[in-house]
Design brief:
Layout lengths: L2 H7 E12 L19 H5 L21 H13 L3 E2 L2 E2 L1 E5 L9 E5 L5 E9 L5 E13 L3 E5 L11 E5 L6 E7 L9 H19 L11 E11 L9 E6 L2 H20 L7 E6 L4 E7 L9 E2 L6 E2 L2 H10 L4 H12 L3 H9 L3 H9 L4 H9 L1 H8 L4 H7 L3 H12 L5 H12 L5 H8 L7 H14 L1 H8 L6 H11 L6 H12 L2
Parallel strand pairs: 12-13
Antiparallel strand pairs: 1-10, 1-11, 2-6, 3-16, 4-5, 4-15, 6-7, 7-10, 8-9, 11-12, 13-14
Helix pairs in contact: 1-5, 3-6, 4-5, 9-10, 9-13, 10-11, 13-14, 16-17, 16-18, 16-19, 18-19
Bound molecules: manganese (II) ion.
């Protein structure tokens, strides 16, 4: 069965759980440095160097709540239109696994910090879907197991396992949606766009580095199917740790198709966790999961209930920056970009560098042109992001001064591309490159007229045609003049002079 057939017969319902690592200096309950604070390779490569007795769960070590992590959670809650609970409670979620030495995760259970929010998610074609947020709660991350030997990287078949507690105790906010219904064939896109929108919000708030590839944002995808228009909910599966936007959408497409095949064959869908495989673009069974796994939750006796008064919430609200959606609307209006232009800019991750370029004096269309063509090509050839180009190769200020040279008529587009090539090769500022290489537009009328007369001498018929009003005949003459001036003439100026000279 393919996806289209599956979606004609069944309605998908999905829910997303997102874990985001907060970029606080220290961990959730102790003074150990937080590897998610700056994500540097140095921090990530030395295992078990960022720990304290608390994050190692040594007997007698007592937790102290990180105030900054609470403020970040409030910011996230407000950005997701949640209510901030005046009292929330940390609980112990008990489980036995070597990535948490305490044998429990400190999390929130029945009284989370943020509840009942929503987030509007816009798809590529502008259609908007509202995703309801059930809760956003604070908890700590676990350490990281690495299974050595075996082919799958999983514990089965491994020779031995290593554990790194640097990540143990990293502050997390877990965001849980309510079931998202009525998205039909767009369910995979809505799910991916939801996580992308969240990622953009985390970045704008400055609460996380929000790098999916570093595991700062991790998504679990719950999905079930029910017969078309039945109004019921089917048995769901939970695909764990799907960590790119493409993978979220692909994993959901795969699960929709897989479940539809089972239902068509009258087979049972097992309620279970599943693993996503990037190489085969498929999921495989994990462990069975009931609705109420017995984690024996109980309130953490070593932490007081978290009280957040209105004054604190309002102080945090006052710190909230402009949200990505509002910024996008504002800049699109200022820059007069069409919806399509804006969408391309956003998808290319070019909005920040374009904004810098415009601030440095470029026109908005000029800035868009360079970042979306030559510089975008350079970025993809060199596997760099546009932000990296802007800090390592060509700055927005340099792009702005290139565009200013064009708008001042000192160079034309063709020369500008040569100058930009030189800028990307590290030759410095556009003005210097133009001086050094003698690349200015030929604006000297007498030089252009000489070149035009030479061309007329070689094509006398063209001169007659132009004189009698056939302007199209000027094409080859313009070509010859541009060649004679090594492409450094202003095309519209040349055209003007040709018409003037043909009439003589
Ligand atoms: Mn969690």
């Amino acid at each position: 069965m393919n996806f289209d057939t599956a979606i004609k017969k069944y309605d998908p319902a999905f829910g997303i759980e997102v874990h985001v690592e907060l970029a606080t200096r220290t961990k959730m309950f102790c003074s150990a440095p937080n590897p998610a604070f700056d994500n540097t390779a140095e921090n990530l490569k030395n295992p078990n160097t960022m720990t304290t007795p608390v994050s190692l769960g040594l007997p007698g070590a007592l937790p102290v709540l990180n105030r900054q992590a609470v403020e970040y959670a409030i910011m996230i809650g407000l950005a997701l239109n949640c209510s901030i609970a005046p009292v929330s409670v940390f609980s112990r979620k008990n489980y036995f696994y070597p990535d948490l030495t305490k044998n429990f995760q400190t999390s929130q259970y029945d009284l989370p910090t943020c509840i009942n929010g929503h987030l509007d998610v816009e798809l590529d074609d502008g259609e908007v879907f509202r995703v309801e947020i059930e809760r956003a709660h604070l908890e700590e991350d676990a350490g990281k197991n690495t299974h050595i030997g075996g082919s799958s990287g999983r514990i089965h078949g491994a020779d031995y396992s290593l554990v790194d507690y640097n990540r143990a105790g990293v502050p997390l906010v877990e965001i849980v949606t309510r079931p998202v219904l009525n998205t039909g064939s767009r369910a995979p896109e809505v799910a991916a766009a939801f996580v992308r929108t969240l990622r953009d919000i985390f970045k704008a708030l400055g609460v996380s580095k929000a790098q999916m590839e570093r595991g700062n944002v991790r998504a679990d995808v719950n999905l079930s199917l029910s017969p078309k228009n039945s109004g019921t909910l089917g048995t769901r599966t939970e695909t764990k740790n799907v960590n790119s936007f493409n993978a979220i959408s692909q994993a959901m497409q795969y699960e929709i198709t897989r479940q539809a095949e089972l239902l068509d064959a009258n087979k049972e869908i097992l309620q279970e966790t599943r693993h996503w495989h990037e190489d085969t673009k498929s999921t495989s069974a994990g462990r069975p999961k009931s609705d109420a796994d017995d984690y024996r939750y109980f309130p953490e006796p070593d932490l007081l209930p978290l009280k957040i008064d209105t004054a604190w919430v309002e102080r945090v609200r006052a710190l909230l920056p402009e949200m990505p959606v509002e910024r996008k609307k504002r800049l699109q209006a200022e820059y007069k970009y069409t919806d399509l232009e804006m969408r391309d800019v956003i998808n290319a991750g070019a909005l920040d560098v374009i904004e810098e370029t415009v601030k440095a004096g470029s026109s908005a269309q000029g800035a868009r042109k360079w970042w979306m063509t030559s510089l975008a090509n350079y970025a993809s050839l060199n596997a760099l992001t546009l932000d990296e180009i802007a800090t390592q190769v060509v700055t927005p200020a340099q792009v702005a001064s290139l565009q200013e040279l064009i708008e001042a008529g000192e160079i034309n587009d063709k020369i500008a591309r040569t100058v930009l090539d030189a800028m990307m090769a590290g030759e410095g500022d556009p003005k210097e490159i133009v001086e050094k290489r003698g690349l200015k537009v030929v604006n000297d009328d007498s030089a252009l007229i000489t070149a035009i007369e030479d061309a007329f001498a070689r094509m006398p018929k063209a001169k007659e045609d132009i004189a009698s009003g056939n302007i199209g005949a000027a094409g080859p003459i313009i070509g010859m003049v541009m060649k004679a001036t090594s492409g450094q003439a202003d095309g519209s100026k040349v055209r003007e002079l040709i018409i003037q000279e043909a009439a003589k």
